[in-house]
Amino acid sequence: MKTILTYGTFDLFHIGHLRLLQRLRSLGDRLVVGVSTDDFNRVKNKNTVVPFADRIKIVESIRDVDLVIPETCWEQKVKDIQEHSVSIFGMGNDWEGRFDYLKDYCEVVYLPRTEGISSTHIRKTLKVLDQTHVGELKQALDLISSIVERFD
Ligand code: CTP
User: Fold this and answer.
1) In this predicted structure, what is the pLDDT of residue 130?
2) How far apart are CA 113 and CA 22, in angstroms?
3) Closest CA to 118 of 36, 10, 21
4) Distance between CA atoms of 1 and 58, rounded to whole angstroms?
């Protein structure tokens, strides 16, 4: 039984997340995923849109995920590797080299990220769309006001 372990925030779950989890699961028999709590995201200076309770439910529902655990701090990895008898620790290659110290405990792999998508990018897009939407509403209100004024 080969167990793989990974961690992430998985905010606004997207195709990059799905592909990473699928590729990791294909390396063995069981995939354990640590989902960052809202408190830990604050430590990482990450402002999420989707709360932890929802993010963990979404990741849990992915077919290739066998177990989801909360990620509450940087230091829990060795304990998790031992507790879940992990053979492979894997992350996207934006983390290349960062977790090499875990090689004392299991195999460590960094998989290529899916190009062109990230939670940060989606959060930024939502913000822009939101401003556009507010602008459109303002224009519509101005138009209505000018029509109403004609009847004064
Ligand atoms: N990931 C990936 N391809 C992407 C985005 C993320 O393979 N396009 C991987 C990351 O490398 C990480 C895991 O998915 O191993 C969880 O990443 P997370 O930080 O939650 O996703 P990001 O979209 O990178 O989020 P953010 O922009 O907030 O950093």
Assistant:
1) 82
2) 12
3) 10
4) 25
Query: Of 39, 51, 45, 43, which Cα lies nearest the Cα of 10?
Result: 51
pLDDT of residue 135: 86
Please say if 46 is a catalytic residue: yes
Is the C-beta atom of 91 inside 6 A of ligand 1?
A: yes
Copy the structure tokens of residue 114. Answer: 């899916």
- The 10s digit of each residue's pLDDT in 70-110 is 999 999 999 999 999 999 999 999 999 999 999 999 999 99
Please report, as a single letter, which amino acid is at residue 78: V
Cα–Cα distance, 147 to 121 (Å, whole number): 39
**Considering the entire predicted model, what is its pTM?**
0.88
Catalytic residue among 44, 57, 103, 138: 44
